[in-house]
Every structure is written in C-alpha cells, then in structure tokens.
Amino acid sequence: MIGVGVAVLVAMTALMLVAAPRSSADYSGDRRPFDIAITVDDLTGNGRLPTGMTRLSIAELYIKALKQHGVPEAYGLVNVAKLQRDKDGGKVLDSWRRAGYPLGNHSYSHLNLNRASSFEQWKTDVVTGEQEIARRMDGADWHYFRFPNMAAGRDQAQHDSAMAFLKQRGYRIAEATVSFDDWAYSEAYARCLAKGDTAAIATMKAQYLKNIDQGIVRMKSLSHKVYGRMIPQILLTHLSGWGAVMLPEVLARLDVAGARYVSLTAVQRDPAYNGDDPWTGNQLMMERIARQKNIDIDAIAKLHRPGSLKTLCRNNS
Question: Is 90 a member of any domain?
C-alpha cells in the first residue's frame, strides 16, 4: 500500500506536468553541443549520511560517474569544519585530489553571509580552513569561492564589502547557472533508505528525473532568452548520498542534451561572466541577470520541489 507521503508526491508530480507554463521557444529536442563545468558543493559531505554509505564511498561513487562521463575537472567546494564531523573526511579530500579534481573554498562552516551575526564573523569563517585546502592543492590554485546558499549579502553595501574582501584574498567567485535541487532530496532519501521504503525512493527518483529533463530545457531557454545564445554553463551539485546515486542519470541526460564538459575557468572566460554585474555570486546567474535587466522569464517552466519531501518517510508518514 502506498503511504500518504508517496501519494502526495505522486499527485504533486502529476499536477506540475499539467500546470507547467511553456516558453515561446521549445528546446526539449535541442541537441546542439554546449560547454558546461561541473561543480560540487559541501565537501566532505552534504546532509545526513545514508544507511550503508560512508562519506568516502559517496565521494568514490561521485568520482566514478564523473570519470565515466569524461568530466575533466570538477571543483569540490569545501567546508573544512566537516573534517571534524567526518572521520573519513580527510580521505574524501585526498580521493578528490587523486582523481585530479581541484578544491576550492565554500567557507569553513557553511556560514550564510546574510545570516551571520557580523561581517567579521563571516570573514573569519572564510579564512579559517584555507591552509587545509591549500595544503591539499599542493601549490595549484585553489582560490575559487562560492557563497554558502549562494547568499551574497543582505544589501548592496554588504555584498560590495564581501567582494572587496574576497578580491583582496585573491579569490574568484564560482558562479552557477543551473541546479536540479539535489540538496532538497538528501534528507528524505536518508530517511527512506533507513526505513527500507523502496516505493518512496522510486517515486522520488521518478520526480527528480523529470526535474532534470525540465531543468535542462529551462537552462537552454533562459540562456537564449537572457543572452540570445547558449552561453557556457556551470552546474551546481552537492556531495551527498542522493547526489552520488543520481549523478550518473544527471550526466547521461546532459550527454544526450549536447554537453561538452570543460573547466570552470574556461567557462568563466566567456563574456557573459565578465560584465558589469552588481550582484556577482548571488543566486543562479541567469535568473539574476534577467531580474537586473527586467527580462520577463515567467513563461519558462520552473523546477518544482515537492513540499512532501520534508515529511516523507518520517514516523507518521
């Protein structure tokens, strides 16, 4: 018998397929090649650790999928504080480096700038842990920073102060243009796996795969709407059990859509990433630029994250 949480998830998935608005141009069949960099947040691991997995086994699954799909570079953005939480956290970072993939900074404790008690607290969180990343990069450049939660300031003054501080320390911002909201599934997946609720997991996977397909179309639609062309893209993912299990499907769908995997630096050389942007690093870039230029993107279907994920596989669901 299907549980209440699963039934709600199925109903919401069906509703989103009926109600999703359509853009004027349809990119669902577009297979033209485009460049994309893969980035991975929250090393040494995001979310609850699922039953039967370790942080290292998750990283190894991630690396295996990246290698199988010919991804030459995948920046891992690190929260160094997680080395204290995860007994195999150091092995995660070492494994990432042995695979030939670089590390960057995602702040020590994943401190959201907008929620920090003070600007000084946030600056300390950026700096703490830098030596650990630098040591593992062994002389290679590690100065990419991504704002936790992609929150780059409560107001313009705070954003500009943060950017000045980061520039002073030699950082470049790791932008992101596309995300399939993998992080939103991590906790529910861990709960459902612990309960052995295979029906719920299957429903989650089906809904997520629809989101990937819809997200790729949205990515292409936004790029053409905002820039008049397909700009090189940057995918934001998270190092979690869910992310590792689903990454092969993500990459397979990107492959079919025309993806050519390149480095983050190569992508950010494109003029789209070097314009006069007063809110660099704040939320997904294409949506941000659309807002700044008053470009109407409402007709482009958004990803839908079922609210039932918060309650799925809890004791009363």
Answer: yes
Structure confidence by residue, pLDDT tens digits, 245-288 = 999 999 999 999 999 999 999 999 999 999 889 999 999 999 99
pLDDT tens for 7-60 read 545 444 443 433 333 445 889 899 999 999 999 999 999 999 999 999 999 999
Predicted TM-score (pTM) of the model is 0.91
CA distances from 29 to 179, 217, 222, 286 (A): 20, 9, 15, 21
DSSP letters for the chain: ---HHHHHHHHHHHHHHHH----SS--TT----EEEEEEEEEET--SSPPTT--HHHHHHHHHHHHHHTT---EEEEE-TTHHHH-TTHHHHHHHHHHTT--EEE--SS---GGG-S-HHHHHHHHHTTHHHHHHHHTTS---EE--GGG---SSHHHHHHHHHHHHHTT-EE----EE--GGGGHHHHHHHHHHT-HHHHHHHHHHHHHHHHHHHHHHHHHHHHHHSS---EEEEEE-SHHHHHHHHHHHHHHHHHTEEE--HHHHTTSGGGSS--TTTTSS-HHHHHHHHTT---TTSPPP---GGGGTTTSTT-
The CATH number linked to 276 is 3.20.20.370
Cα distances (angstroms) measured from residue 142 to each of 11, 48, 169: 45, 27, 11
* Spatial separation of the C-alpha atoms in residues 118 and 107, rounded to whole Å: 15
Specify the number of domains making up the chain: 1
Q: Tell me whether residue 10 is in a domain.
A: no
Structural domain of residue 223, as residue ranges? Answer: 31-310
Task: Please indicate, yes or no, if residue 127 is contained in any of the structural domains.
Answer: yes
- Torsion over CA: 204, 207, 211, 212 (sign): positive
Say if residues 239 and 96 touch (Cβ distance below 8 Å).
no
Q: Is residue 182 part of a domain?
A: yes
